[in-house]
Amino acid sequence: MFENVAASLRRVTIPAAVLLCSLNCTAHAADATPSYPMMVLDDVKHVVTAPARWEKDDWQDFGLATLAVVGTAAIVDRPLRREMLRRRGNNRFMRDVERFGAEYSLGVLGGFYVAGALMENDKALNVAQDGLAASIIASGIVTPVLKFATGRSRPNQNQGYTNFRPFSGAASFPSGHTTQAFAVASVVAAHYDETWVKCTSYSIAGLAGLARTYHDAHFASDVLAGALIGTLVGQSVVAHNQTLRSGKLVLLPEIAPGMVGVRVAGNF
């Protein structure tokens, strides 16, 4: 039952653990910066508890995103799958670009880390740190939980686009590869103002999602949901960590069993 979810976790957490150790050493180089493991834990808490801080506009955006996914499932899933099956073949480009939702994405983060360490470039190091944190949260926590909770069958199982069996182990919704690709892409895009960097990052992530539909592993709505999750988590992690690194103080609501209060986030 848990094989698909476990595979998603292994794909991200095993190589991520190696990179995490390296990033932790770099994070300790500056006394003003929290240790990297503590930063990741704070990021996890920040993202997971985000709905408790959402305001009216945030909930409206969530509603629109949900409608977009549902609308895509109703209108696009079947015709796009038919078209992809018609065009399907041994396309090396699609096979290679799909890997930007798996091992290539961590390779990209590793490249930013090495470049940042060798050239003493804080921006590149921050991309590596934030990208790994976003990957752990989006691809290692949020998407696997949703996969298990929704239990949607993959298109290549030929059980229809409406076949949802919660907690069955079916793992089509949302797309894990797309989640991972957009988590990294959104982090890179958030750190660089150049238009070509943003366009390149999101284009590669989009192609990784398209490749999943080409290989009949996901419906279009799975890909859209994964893209939204990866982007939201990536942008949230970057914004939160910029606050931590800048030394600014931020008051965040703190909700726990038997306690409601305020948490102060920042560097001291």
Summarize the structure.
The chain has 268 residues and is mainly alpha-helical.
What can you see in these coordinates?
Residues 130-238 form the Phosphatidic acid phosphatase type 2/haloperoxidase domain. This is Phosphatidic acid phosphatase type 2/haloperoxidase domain-containing protein. By secondary structure, this protein is mainly alpha-helical. It has a single domain, classed as Up-down Bundle (Vanadium-containing Chloroperoxidase, domain 1). 69% of the residues lie in helices and 5% in strands. Helix 1 packs parallel to helix 6 (103-119), helix 8 runs parallel beside helix 10 and helix 9 runs antiparallel to helix 10. The termini are far apart. 39% of the residues are buried.
Top keywords for this entry?
268 residues; mainly alpha; Vanadium-containing Chloroperoxidase, domain 1; globular
Major sheet details: 2 strands, antiparallel
Helix content: 55-70%
**Spatial order of the strands forming the largest sheet:** 1-2
Distance between the termini: 46 Å
Low-confidence spans: 26-31
Count of structural domains: 1
Instruction: Report mean pLDDT, rounded to a whole number.
Output: 86
CATH architecture label = Up-down Bundle
The oligomeric state of the chains shown is single chain
Which structural class is indicated by helix and strand composition? mainly alpha
Count of β-strands = 2
